[in-house]
Inverse folding.
């Protein structure tokens, strides 16, 4: 392809870049083509021949395409390539078989409204389609390609399949139309189930069975023709088109002739009821002959004997027989009578308006089969559904886009011209039929009152047979066209590979003829033929076509509104409002035709959409829906105000920090399992990892790490984003992640990081330093912090706890994180069966009974189910064990200091000693804080900090920089404050072990790190002591804001 990264760039390079003029761009020439070579390769780009995916493959496999035989460019102009195919596809069976009946039932005004609505819909759709078709080279495959490439594979597949089903059912409709013409008007004698002498339901059933048998025969023969060779179908297309045009001209000629000399088509009316003119010759009760008055065949139909004194049908006896003209002609002014509609129930008599009829209301209807009756119940919306298929077919031109000389010019002009022509013919024919034909004849669907002639045929000149034969051939032709078009469409969809279930239909014969698709098409078509009634099949295909047109309009409106940079159609006369109007019209018509079919069609389209989304191949076609998501995301992010959300909207937006090993594999996969289990909050998840080095050198490593993260997130079913940061040291990289992740209002508010495992090992001293810095940074940034300890012991997503407890040790109120987390965990299958228990610690001077009551009430208001327990902790003496433990801890830390001292650190140490010797600042709290007590201000309360200088005396310089320091270590006394902290940790740990050793998970307030840096390793030790002997612990530190509320 002429574009970047094409394969033979290297070969061309030597020839094209000899000149020294472009030395400045030498680096780029390896990857990007020069403009001159780009233009020359674009100029040779010929429009592609018929086929499905060639255009995409051609861009990728340039090398192969050069070996293929050169394709002669297709050469069809606007007239042959677009206009005539569209006309042939739009004019169809409905015009000949149902148009007169529609005018008779709906009235000229009603039918005109229907025709106008349908034509407006197709015109608006054509405008949208022209815009899409002229936006870039349209390959063969027409409408399906246009929609799928502009709305994405999901919509493309749904619309493609709707369009396919529509075309297939259109084939069924044409076949039914052809059979109706054959059996009722051409050779009524051919019926396998004879209709003679049958009445009512039986006659109807016989007719439908005839349709089924003959329809199946015709379908089989058509499918065979299509299978044997499409070229015959294409050769016959012109013949069929000629039939259509001749038939329509014959009708117009007939209309003109009625004005000069109306044809003689008498209708026999008894009272005001139209009679079926089949078994009698003269429209009179008696005729005068030389031998006197003789009764007619009509008399013997209604009376028991041909004698004048016979007993006759009551209605026959009391009404006169009149003969009226079926076609009074344009000038007769019959239009006024036909302006308004007459809707009938099934089995009603087709009666002539404004004629007398003497009848007893109580008389039952006798001899019903002598009269013309309504064969279906009609109403306005039914007419819409039956009429709409006669305006479909506007895609015929764009479906041949591969054969056109200049598709971008031909498609808009040809399609719009064809729609204008056909709409003019339809609208004029509505008025002309109403102006020429008697109302009872119009409403007589099968022409029984006019000697069984086709009603539109009675109007034609020179003879009704022109129309009958012409329309028979044109319907057969249209059926063949449908049976050729539909399988190709299905094959195109199958070859795209977006619907895995359809893969088999992509295969065909060696020459690419879609054999399997044809088979499926024939089967679906047969289902339409088994319905057997043209009036029932028409609304079905109306649905599918309307659905398809609706999406074309949607595609155009979306692209225009989103102002995608790539949306620059050549066809300029479109506007999003027009597309939108077209879309609403389509939707309205769908529900007008029949709301239940509409719902079924939508369910079909919706389930296909979901199926492709779920199972389909990942295709990136640069579609409009992707653009819509982008716009919507941008809009939503702008709406999310920068400030913190209201407590009710608070949900954990997690930043999960994971470590990677040298191979960029994730070290703690269980961290992501825990993330998934916490995701009932439906917040944002960012999984981040930090790498050491510079971005330029470690770029590939970063990409590998990102892929590993993606893969793990998929396996653990964590929906979110991943981010890899590279920095000169891990500490900074983590800090960058903490600061820069998220966007606008969509930022993380909680950090999930696992406890550093072997922090006590000498070489790991950097990991715990990093960990404590992270704790400090989250506190400074007001982020919540969750630290799972023993992460490898946490359950995977597949495990299920059948019973057990989640225990919450609520020592300090930190905004309610401790309450919220178990609630979120219990939404997940793993923890669903666990019960929640809340423990809180009472000091000496607390009223534990009152505390329990208050806590229960609080939880009740929070709508959280949990058991409550208050644990009393008495101030006991500090045990020798505590003293010992503290001493060992402090000695160890001094030893570490000795060993790890580098020159830099020595200098820093001196500085620290100098700082520590300065007098305590007044801001320092004068009393030691144990975890059970609250600090002075709410801000401090969350910090939960301790400081070395609490005792009010300056801390002793630890003399580490001198050799004698080592001797000091072994005879040092433990710091009082450390002893108290250790005491708290040990006591709490004892209580927790006593109550919660069996719990599946223990949640615990995490104390904050010391203010100054000297006691850092002691802090780690305190936390170890606090959680000793517990299997799964989640240390929680609030972000300094309320996250849970009692208000709704």
């Amino acid at each position: 392809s002429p574009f970047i990264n094409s394969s033979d760039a290297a070969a061309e390079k030597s020839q094209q870049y000899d000149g020294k003029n472009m030395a400045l761009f030498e680096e780029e020439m390896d990857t990007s083509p020069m403009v001159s070579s780009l233009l020359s390769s674009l100029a040779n780009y010929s429009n592609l021949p018929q086929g499905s995916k060639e255009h995409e493959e051609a861009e990728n496999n340039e090398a192969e395409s050069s070996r293929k035989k050169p394709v002669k460019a297709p050469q069809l102009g606007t007239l042959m390539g677009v206009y005539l195919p569209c006309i042939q596809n739009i004019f169809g069976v409905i015009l000949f078989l149902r148009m007169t009946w529609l005018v008779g039932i709906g009235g000229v005004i009603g039918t005109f409204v229907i025709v106008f609505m349908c034509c407006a819909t197709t015109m608006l759709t054509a405008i949208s389609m022209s815009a899409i078709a002229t936006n870039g080279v349209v390959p063969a495959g027409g409408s399906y390609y246009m929609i799928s490439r502009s709305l994405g594979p999901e919509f493309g597949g749904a619309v493609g399949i709707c369009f396919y089903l529509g075309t297939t059912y259109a084939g069924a409709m044409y076949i039914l139309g052809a059979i109706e013409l054959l059996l009722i008007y051409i050779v009524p004698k051919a019926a396998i189930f004879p209709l003679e002498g049958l009445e009512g339901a039986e006659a109807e059933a016989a007719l439908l069975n005839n349709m089924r048998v003959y329809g199946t025969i015709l379908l089989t023969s058509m499918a065979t023709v299509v299978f044997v060779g499409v070229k015959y179908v294409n050769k016959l297309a012109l013949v069929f088109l000629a039939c259509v045009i001749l038939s329509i001209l014959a009708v117009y000629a007939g209309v003109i002739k009625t004005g000069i000399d109306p044809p003689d088509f008498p209708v026999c009316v008894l009272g005001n009821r139209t009679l079926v003119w089949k078994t009698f010759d003269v429209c009179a009760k008696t005729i005068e002959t030389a031998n006197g008055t003789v009764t007619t065949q009509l008399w013997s139909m209604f009376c028991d004997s041909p004698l004048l004194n016979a007993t006759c049908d009551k209605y026959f006896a009391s009404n006169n027989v009149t003969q009226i003209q079926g076609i009074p002609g344009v000038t007769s002014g019959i239009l006024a009578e036909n302006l308004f509609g007459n809707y009938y129930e099934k089995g009603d008599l087709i009666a002539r308006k404004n004629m007398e009829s003497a009848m007893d209301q109580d008389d039952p209807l006798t001899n019903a089969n002598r009269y013309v009756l309504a064969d279906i119940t009609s109403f306005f919306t039914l007419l819409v559904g039956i009429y709409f298929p006669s305006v479909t077919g506007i895609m015929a031109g764009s479906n041949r886009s591969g054969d056109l000389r200049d598709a971008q010019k031909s498609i808009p002009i040809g399609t719009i011209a064809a729609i204008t022509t056909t709409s003019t013919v339809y609208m004029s024919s509505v008025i002309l039929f109403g102006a020429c034909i008697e109302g009872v004849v119009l409403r007589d669907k099968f022409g029984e009152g006019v000697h069984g002639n086709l009603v539109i045929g009675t109007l034609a000149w020179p003879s009704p047979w022109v129309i009958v034969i012409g329309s028979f051939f044109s319907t057969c032709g249209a059926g063949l066209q449908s049976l050729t078009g539909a399988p190709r469409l299905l094959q195109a969809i199958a070859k795209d590979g977006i619907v895995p279930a359809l893969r088999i239909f992509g295969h065909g014969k060696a020459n690419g003829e879609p054999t399997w698709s044809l088979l499926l098409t024939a089967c679906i078509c047969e289902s339409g033929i088994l319905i057997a009634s043209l009036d029932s099949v028409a609304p079905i295909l109306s649905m599918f076509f309307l659905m398809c047109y609706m999406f074309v309009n949607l595609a155009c409106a979306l692209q225009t509104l989103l102002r995608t940079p790539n949306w620059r159609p050549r066809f300029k006369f479109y506007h999003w409002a027009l597309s939108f109007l077209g879309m609403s019209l389509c939707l309205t018509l769908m529900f007008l035709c029949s709301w239940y079919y509409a719902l079924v069609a939508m369910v079909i389209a919706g389930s296909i959409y979901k199926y492709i989304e779920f199972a389909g191949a990942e295709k990136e076609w640069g579609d409009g829906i992707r653009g819509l998501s982008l716009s919507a995301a941008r809009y939503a992010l702008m709406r999310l105000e920068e400030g913190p959300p209201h407590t009710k909207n608070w949900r954990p937006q997690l930043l999960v920090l994971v470590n990677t090993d040298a191979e960029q594999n994730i070290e703690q996969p269980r961290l992501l399992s825990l993330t998934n289990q916490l995701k009932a909050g439906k917040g944002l998840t960012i999984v981040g990892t930090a790498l050491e080095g510079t971005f330029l050198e470690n770029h590939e490593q970063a990409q590998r790490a990102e892929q590993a993260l993606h893969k793990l997130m998929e396996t653990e079913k964590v929906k979110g984003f991943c981010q890899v940061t590279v920095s000169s040291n891990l500490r900074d990289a983590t800090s960058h992640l903490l600061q820069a992740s998220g966007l606008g209002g969509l930022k993380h508010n909680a950090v999930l990081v696992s406890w550093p495992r072997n922090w006590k090992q000498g070489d790991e001293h950097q990991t715990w330093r990093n960990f404590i810095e992270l704790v400090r940074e989250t506190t400074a940034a007001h982020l919540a912090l969750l630290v799972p300890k023993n992460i490898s012991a946490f359950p995977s997503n597949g495990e299920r706890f059948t019973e057990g407890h989640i225990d919450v040790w609520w020592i300090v109120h930190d905004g309610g994180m401790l309450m919220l987390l178990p609630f979120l965990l219990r939404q997940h299958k793993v923890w669903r069966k666990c019960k929640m228990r809340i423990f809180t610690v009472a000091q000496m001077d607390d009223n534990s009974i009152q505390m329990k009551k208050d806590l229960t009430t609080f939880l009740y208001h929070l709508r959280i189910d949990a058991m409550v327990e208050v644990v009393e902790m008495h101030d006991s003496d500090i045990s020798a064990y505590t003293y010992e433990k503290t001493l060992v801890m402090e000695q160890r830390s001094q030893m570490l200091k000795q060993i790890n001292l580098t020159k830099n650190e020595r200098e820093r140490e001196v500085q620290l000693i100098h700082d520590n010797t300065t007098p305590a600042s007044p801001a320092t709290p004068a009393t030691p804080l144990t975890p059970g007590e609250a600090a002075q201000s709410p801000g401090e309360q969350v910090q939960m900090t301790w400081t070395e200088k609490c005792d009010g005396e300056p801390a002793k310089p630890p003399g580490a920089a001198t050799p004698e320091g080592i001797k000091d270590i072994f005879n040092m006394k433990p710091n009082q404050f450390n002893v108290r902290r250790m005491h708290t940790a040990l006591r709490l740990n004892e209580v927790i072990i006593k109550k919660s050793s069996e719990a599946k998970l223990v949640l615990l307030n995490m104390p904050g790190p010391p203010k100054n840096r000297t006691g850092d390793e002691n802090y780690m030790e305190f936390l170890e002591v606090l959680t000793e002997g517990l299997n799964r612990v989640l240390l929680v530190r609030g972000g300094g804001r309320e996250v849970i509320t009692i208000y709704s």
